[in-house]
Amino acid sequence: MSELDAAQRALAAVCLGARVDEAALAALGGDPRRWRLYRDLVRNRLWALALEGLPRTVAAAGVERFGGWFADMLERDPPRTRFARDVAPALAEHIRGAAGDALAAAEPWVSEALAHDVAEHHVGLTADRLDPSRVTDFAMHLPAALDPGHRRLRLRWERVDGEWTERPRALLLHRHPTLHGVEALALSPLAADLLDALDEGTTPATDAVRAVLGRHDVAAGAAFIEGLAALLAELMERGVLVGSRRG
Which sequence spans correspond to the domains of the chain? Predict the structure, then answer.
């Protein structure tokens, strides 16, 4: 092990362990008070990023339990890159690995809050975009082309008067086409299924819509056609529906 590797391991042990590693502190040399201060600065910065990136999870799980997950993540499986944007996803992955199925079964609203936070984090920071050469003007006889940066969520739980209540709903999360902040659009069950079908990527939009109508036992009457046109127009305005995929 090189001297640089040894120093990096010692610094990680001092900053990320649940308690200060005295042997690692001694290996770093210099004034230990400064290293302890540096530890506090590092951990406070990472904690602020975790709170900022996973706010719904904090609210659903409670600060104390969330803090336990955070401390455990730092010690056992800390972020592997220097990028601040990777802290929240790393913590989310750790929570899923540590709490996983038991959490989803006992407190599904916590798992749902975590999924919502991760989806919003992705939408806000992703650079995923369709290749413009593969996209043409929207036409119903072609497969729809949706911005890959968006996310759709089907949620079951909502906190009402301090209690978690089942209230199924669907949301579309996307980045504003000019302001770039994350926006949410509430979807009806039919609209959510239509979006799922349109995002399949290979089926012509007309056939995708027909399949959803069949599952919902809805006729393609004037009211539906008007509603579909309004939905498609709003998706275009929001930059979610960017056209059709070329054959």
Answer: 3-123, 129-245
